[in-house]
């Protein structure tokens, strides 16, 4: 069954890549990269740097989860292990980063069961928080639904989730939830900025508020994360974005923003990997 799921996920990823490629081919003449000036490219590079730094929040969440299960470790060591292993998400299967983190942790003397539980909790919390961003995206799928109501619904659900996790699991798990929520919000905000770059001044007026677009991006990111066999969600994320934002943003501008988004996240992951290499090489034990 696992093998079939991975194959299905891989086929979905390939289908998404083909779908995007066909769209690019259809609009190749209209997509003019020369209209993106040097200042815009500097902005894209800056957004990649922001994404790389924001990825530290993922390591912070994992560090909190390890502490939740009674394993207090150095934050610098956790960032190093998380950042180095995270680059493996681009390998086929979409699970190699988890396996790498498990291996590196056990080699450093961290209990294997603690590492396994932290990975499960991480996926569960990220999936739960990512799903809550669907409240922001409701104006895109429910005609006439106010963006302000979607934002209020999202904030309310996140607050309730924080309280529930704090009371049922503990403060460390609740802090991990907040770290994941902030990371996803930043990621969505970066995509909004890229839409602005791609469209040379997108008008965020009326129903075209940026909060629903943030929600759409996070849902697409989550779909890519949870699809087995899709390395780093390649193809799946792009496909979901094109479906959710079709008719909201011009198709040409959306295709260009999707391409720039993949560039930003890939460069950001490389930067995060570089920062992790400079991290704490000492014993993972706190204070060691």
UniProtKB/TrEMBL annotation:
Keyword NADP listed: no
Tagged with keyword Transmembrane helix: yes
Ranges annotated as spanning the membrane: 40-63, 123-142, 148-166, 178-202, 208-227, 239-257
Sorted UniProt keywords: Membrane, Transmembrane, Transmembrane helix
Name under which the protein is recorded: Lysylphosphatidylglycerol synthetase
The organism of origin for this protein: Thioalkalivibrio paradoxus ARh 1
Source taxonomy: Bacteria, Pseudomonadati, Pseudomonadota, Gammaproteobacteria, Chromatiales
